[in-house]
Amino acid sequence: MSKHEKDKPAPVKVRSIADSSLLVVNTGSTNKKDLLQRIKKLGLKKFVILNFTIPSWANEYPDEWIIADTNDHESAIQAVIAYHKKNPLDGVLTFWEDDVLLTSKITDALHLVGIPYNVASRVRNKHKFREFCMEHGLPSPHHVLTSSIKHLNTCTQLQFPVVIKPTFGANSSFVVKAETLDELKTIYKFVRENISPSIESSLHDGVDLMVEEYIDGDEVDIDILLQNGEIKFWSITDDYQTQEPFFLDNGQAVPSDLPEKAQHELLNLAEIVLEKLEIMNGCIHFEAKYTKSGPVPLEVNLRIGGGVYSFIKNVWHVDMIKHAVCIACGIYFPKIEKSSMPYKYLAIDVLTPEKSGIIASLHIPKEFKKKYLVEDLYIYKEVGDGIFVPPVGYEYLGWLSVSGSNSIDARENLERATKKIHYEIIPFSEDSSLGKTQRKTLNSPAVINKNLLQSVGKQKKIIQLLNTHQKNLNIGIACNVYSQEDNLVEQELTSVGTTIQNVLSSRGYNTFFIDFNNLPRAIQDLQNKKVDLVFNVCERINDQSNLEPHAAALFDVFQIPYTGSNPFTLSSCIDKIRVKKILSYHQIPTPKWDYSYTIDDIEVEHMEYPMIVKPAKSDNSIGISNNSVVINKKQLIEQVEYVVKTLKQPALIEEYLDGDEYDIPIIGSKYENLQVLPLMRSIFSNYPDGMWHIFHFDAKFVNPTKYRKEYLTIQNPPKNVNKKLISLITEIALDSYNLLGCHDYGRVEVKLDSHGNPHVLEINPNPSINIGDALPKSAGLIGLEYGDFIEKIISLAIERYRKKL
């Protein structure tokens, strides 16, 4: 090696994606899944996500997680800095509008390539952006920041129609067009009363409102890759005419059909705005309108727009995600030369129902993508989900993109494909337990809309407070409180609520009673108190056990998360006749049965004596005694008459089974986190002659100690029982639990006949869980002491709501 060669500086190593560590701020919702998948495939040295928790759907993508509350910028930044000191990061970006400002703060703190906070804060606030445009001679509509209805009178200086919008918003949430001042005042009142980060999380940055003159023209999105102040790539997307007055997205077309002159004017405007804002690097989603007077900027979004990656990949064969990562990590790439002609023409449709409601059906034909030239189809909702459209919410079912040989062909193909997606929405109505959205006029508020919006926030808080953080919840214990002078059953109902409150309070939870014996006060507490989660052990309303499901219905109406099963399941299981019909239809073994509403319609010729007669809508063995088992027609009529006339209930008649009885305690929901706890076996062989082998009221409440000492043998877990029988009982119980839709915890009662065959007696959702009851005792056998068991139920409810959202 020569002297001159030794003196040459070492070549600068150009970092590649494989050498880079990237931080993504916030996973966002599941509709960002494809973006995370794409980043995973880039082969980064390290892919890290900052998020408040680890969503199950996103767990497989990053190499590491930084867990911090992204709404608390200071703590989130400190968490990132601590990570960066040990594992240096080369770039940071976000796909989530909520975290644009946090991302810019992290960029500043780590001295990385990106958009500084002082710039991002100016752009993120729509009012500040309008002021900036006016200060720099850029086109901008006349506008005012408004804080009260009285202040709206200053809007007379504006030319109507006008648009009211949040200064920190996204997805057109709470953006409404008004034609007159009176209409503006009505809309303002509605928006001000209902605006909340609960329904649009980007509003965590602020809920100020502004009013600006309506801009007429063709709306477009300009997607830009900007590196070191140079535009490396751009693409213009035409937005179809939005559905006003709420500006619902109707879809897009890529590439733009605007004349070349108009496109260059739009691009030139975007370049000038970005230059004046001093934005040098980023993947920018620039929204503008092309009017008769030329282009006007609407918004500058400092992140990739929704669906943009897929659109541009198909149309121009440019990977926006890859280049956004390169920009964030400071990896240089040359200017991208666009093809003179697009590779495809795309038309995109956003699937938005006309009304809010429940999705009752959804059908997409087989070979849909192939047959109708569909490039992408994303469905974000399932049958049974609620969907909220303006003015209640700002959701949509999903979107699809369809290709064509030209823009007209693509649009025609889209119309053809869209018609093949069939879905039915059952609008919310006055008798819906989920919400009321019927309105006298378009802008009048829903009856419970305010509570609905607040409740969405409670459910999002539930997601954030998983595991160790769940003790931050404000828990209302829905129960029934009686005096000590009341009967044994009433004392037991009081004891359950008191015990749970004592245990949770001792473990640091903030708890309070919601006493449904005082219904007006209970409803007032649900409306006015800060309730994050209801622990539901309410068993009566107006002192009637058959009204128990209505407590859960109230929680659904107010959209407050709660433990245990929903009102449909509770009402179904209270009605023993309905349960019998469901079990019989699904061929789940249950004793032969019939029912009677009067003594004149008893028909039991297909059954054999002895039989047992039960009240069809009672719990806690109320109305069941040794006399409930009958051996002839005369006794049968007498017992049916007692149930129908004295207890005023339909009578359920079953063939009597004299074998052992099993309680099968189950925790969890559906098939995802179900766990069958150790079974409990009751053996009646020591019952004296003349006493039928049943759990009647005396055995449960009057003399439980006597019965357990002298007559009953309780095994928990069962002893000396064939494992195949235990497996069969467990499987039958699980099928019954799932069939009735039980949530979080429940108990299935199974009884053996004289041949040892199991039969389901009943399904008990939300059974009593006082200390010493079957469920907590079985939980203790797997190491869950009572307090742990109660906290487990809370965790199961939280997980259920997390997966639901």
Task: Give the arrangement of secondary structure elements.
Blueprint: H1 3-7, E1 21-25, H2 33-41, E2 46-51, E3 64-67, H3 73-86, E4 91-93, H4 100-110, H5 117-124, H6 126-135, E5 143-146, E6 162-166, E7 176-178, H7 181-194, E8 209-213, E9 218-227, E10 230-239, E11 251-254, H8 260-277, E12 282-291, E13 294-301, H9 308-316, H10 320-329, E14 345-351, E15 357-363, H11 368-371, E16 374-379, E17 386-387, E18 398-404, H12 407-418, E19 422-427, H13 449-464, E20 474-479, H14 488-506, E21 510-515, H15 519-528, E22 533-536, H16 549-557, H17 567-574, H18 576-585, E23 593-596, E24 611-615, E25 629-630, H19 633-646, E26 651-655, E27 661-667, E28 675-676, E29 680-683, H20 697-702, H21 704-711, E30 713-715, H22 723-739, E31 745-752, E32 758-765, H23 774-781, H24 786-804
Parallel strand pairs: 1-2, 1-4, 2-3, 20-21, 20-22
Antiparallel strand pairs: 5-8, 6-7, 6-8, 9-10, 9-12, 10-11, 11-14, 12-13, 14-18, 15-17, 15-19, 16-18, 23-26, 24-25, 24-26, 27-28, 27-29, 27-31, 29-30, 31-32
Helix pairs in contact: 3-4, 4-5, 5-6, 13-24, 16-17
